[in-house]
Amino acid sequence: MRDTTSTALTWFFGLLLENPYVETKIRHEINTNLPKTATSQERPWSAIDHKEFLNTLVYLHAALYEAMRLYPPIPFERKTSVNSDVLPSGHKIDANSTIIYPIYALGRMRSVWGEDALEFKPERWISETGGLRHEPSSKFLVFNSGPRSCSGKHLAMTAMKIIVVEILQNFDIKLDKGHKIEPKPRLSLHMKHGLRVTLTKRCSA
């Protein structure tokens, strides 16, 4: 989980730097819902003690999902059939067949996600009532699907939210001039040149 979580966060911050309006909305959501404390401390909140706070960060949750839709930490999966079967699409699968499906490509298919499939658009995960929109795991395969869904999904999302809140509350982030963001094809979808940024300490209010 460590490698996939760090990979997901790297792409998330890379997309955030390319879409400053998303960063603005996330910062606003954090500041609006951040628990108020009676005393002024260096660390005014603890994520462990404020799980309800993390649950209010719907737009941040949506932005993390959207980043993983476009840049899944594991870009493809492999399955092997025990018995012959017929997929929902009508395709016949023989026993002992190996099936490789590209999660990276699935997340960018217009037939699945709409004409704006290539856009980084966290709003697609927000329902009409302002809550998180549910998508079936067979459509969003980042955490696998069915009985083999990732058991650490909730832990990973919680960890990523904590890290994002801590960084955005304490630092401004700027991409280093001339740095190129592009994927490096391998088992985990790392950035080819990493993510070179400059962090500037934010002044406390």
UniProtKB/TrEMBL annotation:
Gene Ontology molecular function terms on file: heme binding; iron ion binding; monooxygenase activity; oxidoreductase activity, acting on paired donors, with incorporation or reduction of molecular oxygen
Cofactor requirements of the protein: heme
UniProt entry keywords in alphabetical sequence: Heme, Iron, Metal-binding, Monooxygenase, Oxidoreductase
Keyword flag Nucleus: no
Keyword Lipid biosynthesis among UniProt keywords: no
Family named by the database record: Belongs to the cytochrome P450 family.
Matching InterPro entries: Cyt_P450, Cyt_P450_E_grp-I, Cyt_P450_sf
Protein name: Cytochrome P450
Binding-site list for heme: 150
